[in-house]
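Entry:
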Amino acid sequence: MGNRAAAFDTAVPAAALPLPARAGATGSLAVLQGDVPRLPVWFFGFEAVLAASFDIIKAFPQAWPALVLVGLVNITVSLTVLRGRLRLAKALWRGKETRKVAIGLVTARIGSHLLLGAVGLGVTSTLGHVGFALVMAALTVGLLAWTQRTALRALGLA
């Protein structure tokens, strides 16, 4: 496969780049134009609802249409209002840290439910699922905001 960044560096002279190029934390070359607008923290709320959806459905089975609606609104907002910020979102998803956060959230979800079930304290009540949903939502928003800030600092944009 080879190193694409090295091939890019030799194929395009530095003077031909429209704006400064900065190396990311993974060593890949990211050409950023102007100010890269941050994804607003409220946008991470959509991801938080989706991360908490398992427990929301367990607590309130009739809520699935609302979750589908939140997913559709998330897609619509991403493709319209935040269209200019999609480059940043794509760059964040390519980063190792964001994938670690996503894997960590899934692991925390599955692991905590399995662990609690193994010791006989499985979450079965509505209140327990609501609590888990709130914890997962808070973790999602906090970790995604932290990942964005860390990535922008690494690129020298924060």
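The longest strand covers residues 21-23.
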